[in-house]
Model the fold of this input.
Amino acid sequence: MAAALQLDRVSKTYGAMRAVDNVSILIREGERVALIGASGSGKSTLIRLASGLILADAQGSGTGAVHAFGLKVQESGRLASEVRAARRNIGLVFQQFALAGRLSVMTNVLVGVLGRIGALRGTLGLFNADEKRTAYAALAEVGIAQHAAKRARELSGGQQQRVAIARALVQGAKLVLADEPIASLDPKSAKRVMDTLVTMSRDHGIALVVSLHQVDYATAYFDRVIAMNAGRVVFDGPASQINAAFLTELYGASAEELILPSQFAVAAPADAAPSHTLS
Ligand SMILES: Nc1ncnc2c1ncn2[C@@H]1O[C@H](COP(=O)(O)OP(=O)(O)OP(=O)(O)O)[C@@H](O)[C@H]1O
Done:
């Protein structure tokens, strides 16, 4: 079985800054993984490398290969010829909502179909009834079908994130990479978005990698956590091992920005919680 995502000794340098430093990661099909780390630790860069939005360093200790479901995304600082096919399997949900604000919610979701239909039909917005039904069903699944006709910019931040999740569903993504999807949301909206992501993953067997600033969400929703510091993976293991003392060991004083004050403690609902929190 091909891995959902495989990074082999990938690095990315900006000037003198090694944003991602020789990282190797394997995510299995259907697996859910939280990516944590203090600001500037390399989480966003890693997600952009994984989706082929940016190129890895051509030289370094490895060839910097990225594969998704056995299809090559990039290697040796070049996009692979099969990158389009590889990307079809990858849905993206970003902190900045990455929706076309003037267009309707429905149209934004239908963009997910574009990888599968002819460019001309897509450009002209000629989506067929089946595609529209699928998009509406995806919006219903993430709980915002009632907003289908509104312009995307009229929705709240959390609702916009759920539009992006519906778009990934319509795309038929088998792996969703979410980069700080809850960073600018209030706690209630953040929880709703996390519930939606995890339920989507569970119900459709979609692998999920979510970068998170706050560790509490990582341990409430995920079994496996990958922690980054200064571009390197400093921990890859069970979420149950993550606690305040361990974070201080990993990050020193910067651990503070990763831990929520106790009054904001996060509890995932039973149907979205990882196995390590279920009795
Ligand atoms: N386009 C760029 N040009 C120059 N430096 C960059 C660029 N993108 C990222 N960096 C640098 O690379 C390092 C890693 O940044 P990255 O955004 O990946 O971290 P992060 O863990 O996602 O941080 P945050 O939680 O603040 O989003 C930082 O020092 C950042 O300043």
